[in-house]
Each structure stands twice: as structure tokens, then as C-alpha cells.
């Protein structure tokens, strides 16, 4: 059995109709690949369509304020992708005269672009013979060839890249790359793959050894850190609140949030009230304090779990960094904050 021909034949019958498969425009392929990093197709598709609609060319994206780009990205997470996307668009327009780089070695130099994304763009847009290796490809190759090298190790990255490069169809690299990714997404799924009806089942080594569920191997990540976040949702009598822009490095860089008090453990209303008495935002005013959620909202990030409480603080006036509550929906915020804003429904304040 020829692995490469079988994968491509399967793809010709089973591939999904997706808008980025109808173009070789490097801007749109790059956009789709950045969106689909850490994101499933069903979640990423509406974001892709929204970006293409609002920013149909790289010039449109480069001209946009970063806050607008972050707002449109809201809900996808891993916001560094959006910041890098915007920075790269400006770089291509301002430094490269709007011409997208057309080789793997040039593309991989772009901010936010790694081996996988550079290979995808180079092969799909410019027919360069460079293999993609994403989570789907790791899974297919590790099972078919029964490879137990950890995929998140430097050795694993080199081993699987070399194997994929050996297997790629030299005459149609774009088709092969998309085929093997689609095969992993639809056929060789993470859980309960349909091995009985798999066109590769006769030669799949993991299937013959009955260890499909054990592959691919991944080194366990460090245990996520537990943090306690207390967001202060100020509401003044004249319809003002406070949003602060997060500065410095971090996953929420340049996004907005309510004033935050981070504690080592869950804090009681009494303790928080005592803490707030000296808070400069209140200017020694009387205030009412209410906990919005009955139990902490757990927001899981890759490296930390946030145990979050939203405290509603009503006060007569606010004098520092205020915004009109009527404008709160225009600010780019983390999905944790965005979900609260939607559920609290400030429109009725």
C-alpha cells in the first residue's frame, strides 16, 4: 500500500468544503492558519469569515487600530496570535511593499509564524515541497508507523518532520499536506477512531499492536498554577464604570479588564470590604458591595487556572479612568470578562 497515494485519494472523496481551500491568496491562507492555531475549524470558521469581511486585504488589516483587531478576535483566546497578526500585516505593508514572502525561509521569519504555518503557506500558495506537521499529522504518523517518541520534544519534532518530508507528494505538496491534516481531523481522530473503515488499516502498526489509544505520546506538562482573581465592577450613579488596559507582557496584553485584586486564596466579603476602604478609586466614599457569582468561575488557561469572582460595587461617583457603561461593549476584553459583561447585562444598569 502506498501511504501517500492512499491519503490523497481519501482526501479527494472526503474533504470538507472550507473557504480557505478555494484560494491560493497568501493573505487569506496566512489568516486562516493563524486563526486555526490552537483552534478547531468549527470555532475558527466564523472568525475567519469576520476577518475577511472586515479586512479583505492585508492593507485593510495593517491600517486597523490594534484594539479593533483584538475586539474582532475576542473569544478565540491566545491573543498573542492577534497581536502578531496585526504586527506582521503592518510589516508586510510598510517594509515589503505589500508583497507577501513567497518561500518557506522568508515566511518563517514573520512574527508569529513557525514551521507548521510557514510550511502550509509555502506549499499551498507557492507549491513548495515542505511538509506540514500539526497535531493531526503527529497522530496519523505516530499510529501508522507506531512511533512513541514524544511529539512535544525536540527529538520528536525533528523525527516527525523528517518523516512527513519523506512522504510528501513532490508533485502536489499542497494537496498532500491538506490531505494528511484532514485525515487526522476526520478519520484518525484522537478518541474512538473508525479503524474498521480506515483505508490504512491493513498496514497500520499501532492497530496491529492494539495500542492506538496510547499514541501519540506526549510529555506531561507542569501542573497548572491556581490563582484567585477578584474583579471589581464599579457602577456609579451616573452610569460610569472602570476598565483598565493590561500593560506589559502576558496573554491578555493590551486587553481591558475591570480593576483586579489577586489573592492567595478565596477572600470573604468582609475582608474585601476592609481592603476597599483604603482603595483610591473609591475616594473614601460610601459604597455597597455584592458578590455577583455564587461560586468562583473557573477559567482554565494552558498554564494556570483562574478562580474568579466578580464583585459589584455601587458608588455615587467615579473620578478615575472612567468609561460610560453604554460603551463597554466596544472594548476588547478577555473572554472571561466578555462572558460576565453579557451575563450581567449592563444595558439595564
From TrEMBL:
Textual note on the cofactor: Binds 1 [4Fe-4S] cluster.
CDD domains xrefs: ENDO3c, NUDIX_DNA_Glycosylase_C-MutY
Keywords (A to Z) from UniProt: 4Fe-4S, DNA damage, DNA repair, Glycosidase, Hydrolase, Iron, Iron-sulfur, Metal-binding
EC number: 3.2.2.31
Membrane-crossing segments per the record: none
One matching Pfam family: HhH-GPD
Domain of life according to the entry: Bacteria
SMART domains attached to this UniProt entry: ENDO3c
Cofactors: [4Fe-4S] cluster
Residue ranges of domain HhH-GPD in the record: 35-186
Catalytic activity: Hydrolyzes free adenine bases from 7,8-dihydro-8-oxoguanine:adenine mismatched double-stranded DNA, leaving an apurinic site
GO-annotated biological processes: base-excision repair; mismatch repair
Gene Ontology MF terms: 4 iron, 4 sulfur cluster binding; 8-oxo-7,8-dihydroguanine DNA N-glycosylase activity; adenine/guanine mispair binding; metal ion binding; oxidized purine DNA binding; purine-specific mismatch base pair DNA N-glycosylase activity
Name of the top EC class for this enzyme: hydrolase
Family the UniProt entry places it in: Belongs to the Nth/MutY family.
Protein task: Adenine glycosylase active on G-A mispairs. MutY also corrects error-prone DNA synthesis past GO lesions which are due to the oxidatively damaged form of guanine: 7,8-dihydro-8-oxoguanine (8-oxo-dGTP).
Protein's UniProt name: Adenine DNA glycosylase
Amino acid at each position: 500500500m502506498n501511504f501517500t497515494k492512499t491519503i490523497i485519494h481519501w482526501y479527494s472523496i472526503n474533504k470538507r468544503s472550507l473557504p480557505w481551500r478555494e484560494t491560493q491568496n497568501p493573505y487569506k491562507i496566512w489568516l486562516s492558519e493563524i486563526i486555526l492555531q490552537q483552534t478547531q475549524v468549527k470555532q475558527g470558521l466564523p472568525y475567519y469569515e469576520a476577518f475577511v469581511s472586515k479586512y479583505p486585504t492585508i492593507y485593510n488589516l495593517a491600517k486597523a487600530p490594534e484594539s479593533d483587531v483584538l475586539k474582532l478576535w475576542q473569544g478565540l483566546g491566545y491573543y498573542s496570535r492577534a497581536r502578531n497578526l496585526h504586527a506582521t500585516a503592518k510589516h508586510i505593508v510598510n517594509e515589503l511593499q505589500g508583497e507577501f514572502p513567497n518561500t518557506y525561509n522568508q515566511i518563517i521569519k514573520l512574527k508569529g509564524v513557525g514551521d507548521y504555518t510557514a510550511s502550509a503557506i509555502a506549499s499551498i500558495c507557492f507549491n513548495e515541497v515542505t511538509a506540514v506537521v500539526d497535531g493531526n499529522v503527529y497522530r496519523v504518523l505516530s499510529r501508522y508507523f507506531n512511533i512513541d517518541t514524544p511529539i512535544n520534544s525536540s527529538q520528536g519534532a525533528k523525527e516527525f518532520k523528517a518523516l512527513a518530508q519523506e512522504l510528501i507528494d513532490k508533485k502536489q505538496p499542497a494537496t498532500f499536506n491538506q490531505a494528511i491534516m484532514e485525515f487526522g481531523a476526520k478519520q484518525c481522530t484522537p478518541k474512538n477512531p473508525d479503524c474498521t473503515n480506515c483505508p490504512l488499516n491493513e498496514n497500520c502498526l499501532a492497530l496491529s499492536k492494539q495500542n492506538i489509544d496510547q499514541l501519540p505520546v506526549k510529555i506531561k506538562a507542569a501542573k497548572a498554577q491556581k490563582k484567585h482573581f477578584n474583579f471589581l465592577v464599579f457602577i456609579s450613579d451616573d452610569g460610569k464604570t472602570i476598565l483598565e488596559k493590561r500593560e506589559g507582557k502576558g496573554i491578555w496584553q493590551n486587553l481591558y479588564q475591570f480593576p483586579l485584586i489577586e489573592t492567595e486564596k478565596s477572600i470573604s466579603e468582609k475582608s474585601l470590604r476592609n481592603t476597599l476602604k483604603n482603595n483610591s478609586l473609591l475616594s473614601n466614599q460610601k459604597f455597597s458591595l455584592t458578590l455577583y457569582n455564587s461560586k468562583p468561575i473557573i477559567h482554565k488557561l494552558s498554564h494556570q487556572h483562574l478562580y474568579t469572582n466578580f464583585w459589584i460595587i455601587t458608588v455615587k461617583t467615579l473620578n478615575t479612568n472612567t468609561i460610560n457603561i453604554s460603551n463597554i461593549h466596544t472594548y476588547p476584553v478577555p473572554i472571561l470578562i466578555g462572558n460576565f459583561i453579557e451575563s450581567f447585562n449592563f444595558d439595564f444598569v
